[in-house]
Design brief:
heterodimer, A: about 325 residues, B: about 475 residues, two-stranded antiparallel ribbon, 21 helices, globular, binds zinc ion, prenyltransferase (chain A), EC 2.5.1.59 (chain A), Prenyl_trans_a (chain A), protein farnesyltransferase activity (chain A)
C-alpha cells in the first residue's frame, strides 16, 4: 500500500529506489514496502537538497521506523534550521520520541543541537532558566529507566557546561542519584565532572579538588560511601583520582584504609580495594616488604583473578625498593 | 550546521540494537526456546575432577559480595548466578568437552551462524539499515578468526559496497546515506579481509577525511556530526591501511586553523580523554569505558610506536590499573565500566588492549588472566544447541557482534603479539605494520586448558583482521600517492 506514491503532495517527486549493488548483495535486508518507499523519497529529496515542511514529515516517519538512522537525523536538523522551524515544538516531539526509543542516542545529540540553537538564536527571548530546568528534569526522568545510559550522561554534562550549572544544585543531583545506587559509577563520574570540570574545561574559576576545602569535602563524601559499601570500586577510584590530581600524601588515607584491611589482621579483610590502596601507602613510605605482603594477599587470597597484575606491581616494587635501599 | 552522531561502535546502544536482532533471529528457529534447554542440570561423566582454578574457589568469589540492595549489586548477583554452573562445569550444556574438561570451541557452528548473516535478512533488520557495513566486518573478521576462507566473497562484497561509497569520499551505512567514520572503517576492514580494497576511491577518501579532522586534533564521526575517540581510531585505521598521504587536503577547514597533518594534535586530544579513574572516555570528561580504551591505544599505536606514544600521551600505570580492574570475579571475562557487568564483547575491547600495553611497557610478563577469559568465553558465551554463535552472557542471545569480538578476544588470550622496532618505514604510518604474532606453546595450552581445535587464528592487534590480510594491504598500497 503506497503511502507517498498516491499522495498528491508528493506527486512532483520521482523516488530514487535503492541500488542493491548487483544481483547477489551480501546481508541484503528484505525491507518492508513501507520502509523501502519512504527511503526512496528521502534519497530523492536529499539529492535535490530540498528543505521543506514535507521533508520534516518524511524524516519523522522514517525515525519512527528506524530511530538509529543517522542520516535521517542529520537531514532533519539541517531542514529544521533552514526553515527556521519552531524548535520548541521539536523539543516536545523529541520528548515523546525519547520515551519511545529509550536506548537511541542520536536523539540526545539532536536534542543538544536544538537546545543550543534555541538559546543562540533567540537569546533574550527564550527563558533560559526555564529551559535548562526542564531539560534537567527530563534527563532525570530518563535515569529512572536506565541510570547508567552513557549518552544521557553525556548530554547532562553538556547541559552543565552550556548553562554553567556548576553549583550546589547539580552536586545535590549526584547525591540523589548515588542515594539510589551507591555503585552507579556514571553518577560518580558526573560528580567528578561537576566538582572539577569548570577548572579543567574552562579554566575560569574554581580549583576543583585542588581547593583544600573542596578536597576535604570530596574525600569525606567518598569515605562515607566506602563505609556503607566497602567493596565498591567507585568511591575508591574517586579517592585515588583525588590523590593523583592533588598529589596529596597517601599517608592521610592510611588509617582509613586500615579500617577495611590491615596486615595485622589478614583474615579480616573487608575490601580488596583497601588492600590495593594500602600497598600504595607502603610504597610511599618506602616499606617494600610490607607492600609486597599486601600484594601477595591480593594475588593469593583476596583477588586471584588479577594475580598477574599484582605480581607486576610487586615487580615494580623490587625496582623502587632497591632504589630506596 | 552543527552535528549529529552515529554510534555504531558505542557499545550500550549497539547492544540494544543487537538485542532486536537477536529477537528477530529467534523467530523462525525455536529449537532453544521450545524445548527444555539442552543439557540443563546434567553433570558430564568424564569430567576431570580438578577443574577449579584459584579465582573460582567459592571462598574467593564469595568474599566481598554482600547484598547491599543496590540495583548494581542485584544485577551482579544475577549474572554470577547464571554463569556459575557453566564456569564450574557443573552444567556442561551438552557441549563436547576437550581433554581438560572445558567445552571445545564450536568452530563449525559459529562459522555457520556467521554465514547466515550474509544471506537475505528479514524486514525487522531495517533497524540495522544504517549499520550494514558492520555485518560485513563482523562476519568476515569472525570467519577468518576461525580459519575460514572468505576469498569467495570478494566479488560479491565489492559489488555490495559499491553503492555505499559516496562520490565525495567515504562509505555510508547504505545507498544514499552520508559517509560515516564507523561505516567506512567497517567497510574498509571487511574489504581488507577479502582482498578487495581496490573498490575504494582513495583520493576522495583522503579529501573526506580532511573534512572530518578537527582543529583540536580529534575527528568527527561524519560531516557535522559528533567528535569522539571512535572517530580518531577509525580515521587513523583507514589512513594507515590505504596508505593515504598525511598532509591535510589544501582546502579543508582544519588547515585554516593551522594544522597541516592528520596527526597534528591527535595524541594530545586522545590524552584529554583519560579520566580520573585511569580509563579512557569517548570524549573528554565522560565516563571511562573499555571500548574507548582500545580505540585510544590502537589509535596511538598507529600514530607511532606504542612504546613512544602510549607513555607519552597517557598515564600508563593508571590505565593498566583500571583495565586490570575490569576483569570480573568469578566470571573471568571483562566488564566495560566500573561496577558494570561482564560482557563477551569486552573480551576484545579490553582484552585487546594488553598486547598494545605490553609493547608499550616492554613488560615480559602478562598483566591479566588469559586463563580466566578463555574459560569465560568457552563455558558461558557459546550458544549451545543447533545454532551456534557467541553471546554477551548466558542469559542473552548470540549475535554477529558478540561472535566477532569474542573470537577476537580469544585470539588476544591465546596468542602472543610482538612489536618490532621499525628499521625502514614502508608506509606513511608504518608502526601499525610492525607486528608479528606467535602461537602458544604446548605448556601454555595445557595451562589454559585448550586443545588445537580450540585455537583461533592470529588476529592483528591493531586492525583486528587477519595478520596476512594486513600485509596484503600494505603491499597493495606501498607506493602511496593518490
Ligand atoms: Zn556486549
Amino acid at each position: 500500500m503506497p503511502k507517498y506514491a498516491d499522495d498528491p503532495t508528493w506527486a512532483d517527486i520521482v523516488p530514487l529506489p535503492t541500488d542493491e549493488g548487483g544481483p547477489n548483495p551480501l546481508a541484503a535486508i528484505a525491507y518492508s514496502d513501507d520502509y523501502s518507499e519512504t527511503m526512496s523519497y528521502l534519497r530523492a529529496v536529499m539529492a535535490a537538497k530540498e528543505h521543506s515542511p514535507r521533508v520534516l514529515d518524511l524524516t519523522e516517519d522514517l525515525i519512527d521506523m528506524n530511530p538509529a538512522h543517522y542520516t535521517v537525523w542529520l537531514y532533519r536538523a539541517e531542514t529544521l534550521f533552514a526553515l527556521h522551524s519552531d524548535l520548541r515544538a521539536e523539543l516536545e516531539w523529541l520528548n515523546e520520541t525519547a520515551l519511545a526509543h529509550q536506548k537511541n542516542y542520536q536523539i540526545w545529540h539532536h536534542r543538544n543541537l536544538i537546545v543550543d540553537r534555541l538559546c543562540g538564536e533567540e537569546q533574550g527571548v527564550v527563558d533560559e532558566e526555564g529551559l535548562w530546568k526542564a531539560e534537567c528534569e527530563f534527563v532525570e526522568q530518563m535515569f529512572e529507566r536506565d541510570a547508567k545510559n552513557y549518552h544521557v550522561w553525556s548530554y547532562r554534562q553538556w547541559l552543565v557546561r552550556r548553562f554553567g550549572l556548576w553549583g550546589p544544585v547539580e552536586l545535590e543531583f549526584t547525591e540523589r542519584m548515588l542515594a539510589r545506587d551507591l555503585r552507579n559509577n556514571s553518577a560518580w563520574n558526573h560528580r567528578w565532572f561537576v566538582v572539577n570540570g569548570r577548572a579543567e574545561m574552562e579554566g575560569d574559576g574554581g580549583l576543583g579538588v585542588e581547593d583544600p576545602e573542596v578536597r576535604a569535602r570530596e574525600v569525606k563524601f567518598a569515605m562515607e560511601a566506602v563505609a556503607k559499601t566497602p567493596q565498591n570500586q567507585s568511591p575508591w577510584n574517586y579517592l585515588r583520582g583525588i590523590v593523583r590530581k592533588t598529589g596529596m600524601s597517601l599517608g592521610h588515607l592510611k588509617g582509613f584504609a586500615e579500617q577495611y584491611a590491615s596486615l595485622k589482621e589478614p583474615d579480616e579483610v573487608r575490601s580488596s580495594f583497601a588492600l590495593d590502596l594500602l600497598a600504595e601507602v607502603y610504597v610511599e613510605e618506602k616499606k617494600a616488604k610490607e607492600a609486597g605482603e599486601v600484594l601477595d594477599l591480593l594475588a593469593t587470597r583476596y583477588d586471584p583473578i588479577r594475580k598477574h597484575y599484582w605480581q607486576y606491581r610487586k615487580g615494580l616494587l623490587g625496582v623502587e625498593g632497591a632504589a630506596a635501599a | 550546521m552543527a552535528s549529529l552522531q552515529e554510534d555504531s561502535i558505542s557499545i550500550d546502544t549497539l547492544d540494544e540494537r543487537l538485542k532486536i536482532q537477536s529477537r528477530i533471529e529467534e523467530l523462525p528457529d525455536t529449537d532453544d526456546e521450545g524445548v527444555p534447554f539442552p543439557g540443563k542440570g546434567q553433570i558430564p561423566l568424564n569430567r576431570p575432577a580438578s577443574i577449579s582454578p584459584s579465582w573460582l574457589q567459592p571462598a574467593v568469589f564469595g568474599l566481598f559480595h554482600i547484598d547491599d540492595g543496590t540495583t548494581t549489586m542485584e544485577a551482579q548477583q544475577k549474572t554470577t548466578a547464571e554463569c556459575l554452573s557453566y564456569l564450574t562445569l557443573k552444567d556442561s550444556q551438552d557441549l563436547p568437552l576437550n581433554l581438560y574438561g572445558l567445552p571445545h570451541l564450536r568452530r563449525k557452528a559459529h562459522a555457520d551462524f556467521l554465514r547466515v548473516t550474509l544471506g537475505t535478512l528479514p524486514a525487522p533488520y531495517a533497524a540495522m539499515d544504517a549499520s550494514r557495513p558492520w555485518l560485513f566486518y563482523w562476519t568476515m573478521a569472525g570467519l577468518t578468526s576461525l580459519g575460514e576462507d572468505v576469498s569467495g566473497y570478494r566479488e560479491r562484497l565489492m559489488e555490495t559496497v559499491r553503492p555505499l561509497q559516496n562520490p565525495t569520499g567515504g562509505f555510508g551505512g547504505g545507498h544514499g546515506q552520508l559517509s560515516h567514520c564507523a561505516c567506512t572503517y567497517a567497510t574498509v576492514l571487511a574489504l581488507t579481509c577479502v582482498g578487495g580494497l581496490e573498490v575504494v576511491d582513495r583520493t576522495a577518501m583522503w579529501r573526506w577525511l580532511g573534512e572530518v579532522k578537527q582543529a583540536d586534533g580529534g575527528f568527527k564521526m561524519a560531516l557535522g556530526a559528533e567528535e569522539d575517540i571512535r572517530g580518531a581510531y577509525c580515521a587513523m585505521t583507514i589512513l594507515a591501511l590505504l596508505n593515504l598521504p598525511l598532509e591535510l587536503p589544501q582546502d579543508c577547514a582544519a588547515r585554516k586553523t593551522g594544522l597541516n597533518s592528520f596527526t597534528d594534535k591527535l595524541g594530545e586530544w586522545v590524552s584529554s580523554c583519560q579520566t580520573y579513574e585511569g580509563g579512557i572516555a569517548g570524549a573528554p570528561t565522560n565516563e571511562a569505558h573499555g571500548a574507548y580504551a582500545f580505540c585510544a591505544l590502537a589509535c596511538l599505536s598507529i600514530l607511532d610506536a606504542p612504546h613512544k606514544t602510549i607513555p607519552r600521551f597517557l598515564n600508563i600505570e593508571a590505565l593498566i590499573h583500571w583495565l586490570a580492574s575490569m576483569q570480573t570475579t568469578p566470571e573471568g571475562g571483562f566488564a566495560g565500566r566500573t561496577n558494570k557487568l561482564v560482557d563477551a564483547c569486552y573480551s576484545h575491547w579490553v582484552g585487546g588492549c594488553w598486547s598494545l600495553l605490553q609493547a608499550a611497557t616492554k613488560s615480559p610478563n602478562d598483566l591479566w588472566s588469559r586463563e580466566g577469559l578463555i574459560r569465560y568465553l568457552l563455558t558461558c558465551c557459546q550458544q549451545p544447541g543447533k545454532r551456534g554463535g557467541m553471546r554477551d552472557k548466558p542469559s542473552t542471545r548470540p549475535d554477529g557482534y558478540h561472535t566477532c569480538y569474542s573470537l577476537a578476544g580469544l585470539s588476544a588470550a591465546q596468542n602472543h603479539y610482538h612489536y618490532h622496532t621499525e628499521e625502514s618505514p614502508t608506509t606513511f604510518l608504518s608502526s601499525a605494520f610492525q607486528w608479528s604474532a606467535s602461537r602458544p606453546s604446548k605448556e601454555e595450552m595445557a595451562q589454559w586448558s585448550i586443545e588445537e581445535e580450540d585455537r583461533v587464528r592470529l588476529v592483528h592487534p591493531v586492525f583486528v583482521v587477519p595478520m596476512e590480510a594486513v600485509e596484503r594491504a600494505r603491499l597493495q598500497f606501498e607506493k602511496g600517492g593518490l
